[in-house]
Amino acid sequence: MSLAAQHEATEQVEQHIKGPRRVLSVDMLRGITIALMILVNDPGDWGHVFRQLDHSKWNGCTLTDLVFPCFLFVVGISSVFSLASRAEKAGNRGKLAHHVVSRAARLWLLAFVLSFFPRMNWTGFRFFGVLPRIAICYLLASLLLLFTRNLRVLGGIVIALLVGYWAMLRFIPVPHVGAPGDWIGFLDPVDNIAAYVDRAVVTFTQHWFYTGTLYLRTSDPEGVLSTLGSLATTLLGAMCGLMMRRLSFERMRLMLISFGVPLVLAGLAWSHWYPLNKNLWTGSYVLFTAGLFMLTLAFCSVLVDGRTERWPMWLRVSTWPWFVFGSNAIFAFAFSNAIVKILLAVRYYDANGEAHSLWSSIYTHGFSHHHSNEWTSLAFGIAFVCFCFLPNWALWHKRIFLKI
Predict the structure, then answer these.
(1) Which of 61, 152, 188, 382 has a C-alpha 20 to 30 A away from that of 359?
(2) pLDDT tens string 264-293
(3) Helix/strand/coil for 192
């Protein structure tokens, strides 16, 4: 980065940190998460991906498996601050509920538009997905926060969600398969109750709406029942946000560590009987990941929260990209999704009559030179993240923050 660019970056960070008490660590974590989300979603070659930059096939947890739950965790925290800010601006409960429902509907509409773009193909429409899950979790968590901010009540709801979901997976018989038992694991990739419900939903939509598809064909990682686990993740973030609003930065970090470590250990302990599983969003996965996010947030807070002295240059430059990405996170995700679809949709034919997408052409000629490996695939992914950074930088520079 040039000296001029460094100077501009530091000035922009200076403007961002001014004003009333702001938990900058949340902005930073949101930006890191959305950058990682773009990176792991868009390698140059899916056949050559580092293990940690791909999802676990079933049980287990990689770096990639942490990305989406981290975003939902931050959604929970942000919902607390957003609702509190709106309540202070003469917003009664009815108006706040209308705002929450409207925002969730806009997220659904954005998901709908991106699903059709650019081919406008109805038959392959996917009702599940990242944005629909964000919309549902945001909607339910925010509505709950409008009616109660009691940590014990919210904690009880989280426990009920996790235990209830585990009981569904463990004890509800799967039609045409039978009850989970020794001869068939209750987390079988195909014959579990969550996968059955997903297939039933798609059968219904295919019959009545002539469309519907599952990401994994036999199930969907953003399916119906697994939403219970993801809602628990969002509520844990909301509970964290409620405590963060009441505490000084020093006590906030202590709180994050004191809750984060036990949650990680509880998740690991439960995983011996109830494995970490992102596709099913199991309870052990919820506890383990939420604990990790609290510890990560505490680390980010040490770096950026509550600094009274002028920030050193190294800190301003190193945190600036994450503030830029985090300032318009949904836009960054939607933009990356749209660009990928365009690059895959634009095709040409070579001299042998073989079709090639613009995406594969850029990767082959610009990065792999016909010798693809994990490093060339990663290089393409990083370059794509940098490309998606540019419009966010332009919005940040003009102080434009798009609200979905």
Answers:
(1) 61
(2) 999 999 999 999 999 999 999 999 999 999
(3) coil
